Amino acid sequence: FQNYWVSLSQYNEYQRDNIEIMLEPAGEKVAFALVGAISDGFWKKPVEGAKVSVRSVTPVAGEWYHSSSGKEGKFTQRGLVIDGANNYQMEVIVTAENFQELRKTVTVRKENSYSLDLGKVELSKQKVNFKVEGFVKAAYSRETPIQGAKVALSLIAPLHAPLSVNLHSEPSGNFSHSGDILKGIPYRVRFQIEKEGFEKETYLYEL
């Protein structure tokens, strides 16, 4: 009788790398629900149709579960399964049109088994870039630029204090400003233009 030794690393057809072993945590499995209410952080009103995605992160990574907020912004994510012997870390992702994605991690403790209320979850508006350009010239001659005119620019949004910027016209009479504003908000832009020897002018535009 003769022994033969074969190294599996020499034969790819027998080689198995990165074998994933899944261990389920011990303990009685219980159904669990995550509830909360999605709110607009700007208008302080409920957000309907927000997508809420939830999964467990620890002690084991679980699959994603999805739900949507109703007319009052409320959502209930059922179908989650945990065991009553461990604390769980849950990853929550909330997305909605015109809002920034929100990610948060919550701890589900053993005493919270069966349900956890996140309370009010506020979403922040997405930001978009805007640019304002203008030209200051003498009323008596549309071809004559005015240099050094003070241009007080104010961005006016509901429920918020105006954002004010002071500019000065260039030798060409041009002025410009760019920055970020919140998406989906009805802004008004006010210009107050002053120059010694000229009457003060005020203009108001809608963005």
Q: What structural class do helix, strand and pairing data support?
A: mainly beta
Distance between the termini: 91 Å
What is the average per-residue confidence, as pLDDT, rounded to a whole number? Answer: 83
- SS element count, helices: 0
Low-confidence stretches: 1-11
Radius of gyration: 30 Å
Instruction: State the order of secondary-structure elements, H for helix, E for strand.
Output: EEEEEEEEEEEEEEE
- Global geometry: rod-shaped
Q: State the share of residues found in helices, binned by percent.
A: under 10%
| Main sheet: strand order | 3-2-5-6
Question: How would a crystallographer describe the biggest sheet?
Answer: 4 strands, antiparallel
> How many extended strands?
15
Provide the β-strand percentage band: over 45%
Question: What is the fold's blueprint, element by element?
Answer:
Elements: E1 29-40, E2 51-58, E3 65-68, E4 74-83, E5 88-95, E6 102-108, E7 115-123, E8 127-135, E9 137-138, E10 141-145, E11 150-156, E12 163-168, E13 174-182, E14 188-194, E15 201-206
Parallel strand pairs: 1-7
Antiparallel strand pairs: 1-4, 2-3, 2-5, 5-6, 8-13, 9-10, 11-12, 11-14, 14-15
